[in-house]
Amino acid sequence: MAVLSQSTAAGAEARVPDRFVSASKDAGFAALVTLGLCVPLVTLRTDSEEGGELILVPRLGLTAALCLAIFFARLGYLLLWGKEARAARQPTSRKEAIKTVATPRHSLTTIGLPIALGFAIAYPLLVTVINGGLSEARYWIDLGILVLTYVMLGWGLNIVVGLAGLLDLGYVAFYAIGAYSYAILSTTFHISFWVCLPIAGMLAATWGVLLGFPVLRLRGDYLAIVTLAFGEIIRLVLINWVPVTNGGAGIASIPRASFFGLPFNDDDDGFAAFFHLEFSPMHRIVFLFYLILALATLTSIVTTRLRRLPVGRAWEALREDEIACRSLGINTTTTKLSAFATGALFGGLAGSFFAVRQGFVSPESFNFLESAIILAIVVLGGMGSQIGVVIAAAVMIAGPEMLRNLGFLKAIFGENFDPSEYRLLIFGLAMVVMMIWRPRGLVSTREPTVFLKERKSISSDLVKEGHG
Amino acid sequence: MRGETLLRVEHLTMRFGGLVAVNDLSFTAKAGDITALIGPNGAGKTTVFNCITGFYKPSEGRVALAHGGEAAFAAIEEATEKGARTLSVGDGAIHLLERMPDYIVTQHARVARTFQNIRLFSGMTVLENLLVAQHNPLMLASGYSVLGILGLSSYTTRQREAVELAKAWLERIGLTERADDPAGDLPYGAQRRLEIARAMCTKPILLCLDEPAAGLNPRESLELNTLLRDIRDRDETSLLLIEHDMTVVMEISDHVVVLDYGVKIADGSPEQVKNDPKVIGAYLGVEDEEVAAVEAEVEGRA
User: Fold this and answer.
1) Interface touch A327/B115, C-beta < 8 Å
2) What are the structural domains, with CATH classification, of chain A?
3) Which chain A residues contact residue B210 at CB under 8 A?
4) In this predicted complex, what is the ipTM?
């Protein structure tokens, strides 16, 4: 027995140098790739001389340091957490690991949303206390408004992409329609925000249906390309239809929202005077925060209810298998159109809110990158998951903003270092990490809409992503 | 109206480019019967199914289904000339299936189907699968979702009834215990039974099954026979099935139609068909002298 254990120990020792050699080979290769990438990106820096002439500054030291850093990072990773190192520690199969994580995720989805809502309600108070004053907290409340806008947009797109499985790359078009609807209606016809809001939603939904009719015969990639084109067409129309949209200059001085008829100003009939408060411009900001919170909550409630209604189940069935849907008497065209229209409706509402908050709209705000960010939020969050979208929106929108606050990094990298310049790099890295670690998003399990005895989450390997 | 004609397929032809998949096929299926459509691989059986259920538009021919007894067939010419999909006749109605899109065939003509390669909603639970099948009545009850979002009680009642129907079917296919599991997790045989139950939840008068016994072991195959007979006898549903498993076909069908190369080669009771030399020839191939004999016979008849 002793002999046996000795020999296995010796065998393990013999394998360690082997592992080291293969790991260093791998790390060396990674360093080579880094070198290849560094040559065009890092090694030569263009700079301007005193006279304004361009010169190239070689940065060989930095290149070498980067390559070495990558080499040792990769080596360390392979030796400590690599596949072989993990196999040496515990031989559990991947499948078992998946099964065990499935249960706690269930509680996250059921209690996550109420917690998030509670936090959101308390948020303005929280940041006011932390920053020691309402005006000082303005940055944080503005950030909250921005995140909530994207949460709402993510939930809206989630209906189309996550539930119905239709890949829509032009969602920003509906956002734009909502924003311009309010901008034009309020500046030209002086209609109040509260009347415009439903009109803008309806207009966006109508456009959703109009786009849907010719497009929904297409599937997969083709659908994605046409929706992308639709987004661009709307933007180009906004630029070129100058008499109505004022072209690239945009529409300025859009009337602000009132508190059910009480304007946010320091007049005698204003909001502050009515409630006997001291006037502060922050009242309007806090009001906007709760307005978008209410709109986002509405989106969430409606979506949750729709999922439990036959139409929501038909959307999900459509994502799973369209032909089977047709064999069960489901009209797939109207089902798809209803998904498009519902998604567009919430996009339009969010757009109206955007216009009333900014007081200014221009086609610049509705480019493809916006669509891509909203889609990334949905995909990162996990398609069909509500709480996943909240987390993803917070990470994607607030994360890059947080880079501005990392002042201590200047102490390490020098005075000229600006972390927010690296936002796209970090964004890309985060995407790659997600693809490896959680390819189906943060919350990938599906909650059933109805159950007989016990609500069991459905693992993502069974849930389909839809194909158009 | 058991024993009366339910479905009439007349001169059905389906061409894909130059390929004639089904050529001038005519047959009938009776209410309360299990009608089997058999034939070697590539004979055009699934194409016939796709034409009946609206997934293909036939190149030529007519597929008529009578609701409320065969008397409705009296109006078949009138409906054809009017260009109507459906024509009411007294209590019943005549449906011209070849004019309907697939989902209307299920929704209005009440013909349901299953697929050769199972098409369940694998990421949805067994119960959800059965509720999706009741989409149309539930959609109506939810006021096309508008009233449903507001939480009106009529929908809740209707949904409870739908769950009851689903439970009854789960009982019949022996899957009550697995109601809350994803359909994709079920074993193969159970998936086949679930697909049949799901089609039955649309309350069809004609159920078309595409190879329901494929891939089943002998015990499951036996259970399937019981289930299909049970459907024929207890529900107001007639069956039309494609099957390769001859024991299933001979055991349960009341009427067999044999296809080969898109042409009907035999039509009759299982006994008649079993002994038909053309059927034996189509399935097993024939020896040369037999070919000559059959050819002589055919020419003699002509």
Assistant:
1) yes
2) 15-91 (no CATH), 95-405 (1.10.3470)
3) none
4) 0.87
